[in-house]
Amino acid sequence: MVGLNTVVNLAISTAVVEKVSVQEASGPLCADEFWSHFLCVGVGAKFLSGLRGIPLAAQEEYFVGGLLHDLGKVAQNDCFSEEYRQVFERAKEGKASLCEAEAEAFGVDHCGVGLMIAEKWQLGISLRDSLAHHHNPQAAERAGRDLVILVSLVDSYANMLGMGSPGYPRPDESALFSLLEEAKIRPKALSDYQERVFEEIEKARVFIQLSTKG
Predict the structure, then answer these.
(1) pLDDT at residue 112 above 90?
(2) CA-based diameter of the chain, in Å?
């Protein structure tokens, strides 16, 4: 009745919620702030996809792409909590970008780990590339690039505004405007998103609460 894509997206989202919710906060990631960032990007990507005229049924995948984009960080935080704390400190001090610090410590950054997870879970192209290429949308396959660009755009904007905690210094505004141009999104759309984001996040939190209780 609801369609296969909806069922798949709900199953993936629920699996992620359950996985992240049971983890102890042993690493540098603050669960509440990190979930806020997850939700900011998911809600924002869905909101902007609506402005782009993406059909309502397909907008769910944009939400899931935003929700999953930093999943590689969760894996690194869970498996190497103390090492990841040091990685965060290097990034916050400006000694290296987060991706560079991760690669130095583990031989792979969170985007590479995200790709491993996507391949293990056999995710589709768009979701796979949102995990693997949200810091470099041009590397995404053409079939999923529109989703990755919007995820990257909202990720940068949420980071710039301090919405949640992605764990790295704020991006420069020139990169943000470059993504806006690439996505063909007017800057005012981000202001509109900012006004609605907290209401939408609270709606999304209901889903998380129901999932963790189930």
Answers:
(1) yes
(2) 52
Query: pTM of the entire structure?
Result: 0.83
d(CA 49, CA 51): 5
Residue 85 in tokens: 């704390």
In this prediction, residues 15-39 reach a mean pLDDT of 65
What is the per-residue DSSP string for the chain? ---HHHHHHHHHHHHHHHHHHTS---SS--HHHHHHHHHHHHHHHHHHHHHTT--HHHHHHHHHHHHHTTHHHHHHHHHSHHHHHHHHHHHHTTSS-HHHHHHHHHSS-HHHHHHHHHHHHT--HHHHHHHHSTT-GGGS-GGGHHHHHHHHHHHHHHHHHT-S--SSPPPPHHHHHHHHHHHT--HHHHHHHHHHHHHHHHHHHHHHHHHHH-
Sketch the domain layout of the chain as residue ranges.
30-71+110-213
Tokens encoding 56: 């309502």
CATH fold label, 30-71+110-213: Hypothetical protein af1432 (1.10.3210)
Ranking 87-91, 99-103, 147-151, 191-195 by mean pLDDT, the lowest is 191-195
Q: Tens digit of pLDDT for each residue in 64-75?
A: 899 889 989 888
pLDDT of 208 above 80: no
Q: Report whether 134 contacts 152 (CB < 8 A).
A: yes
Q: Report yes or no: 69 and 12 within 8 Å, Cβ to Cβ.
A: no
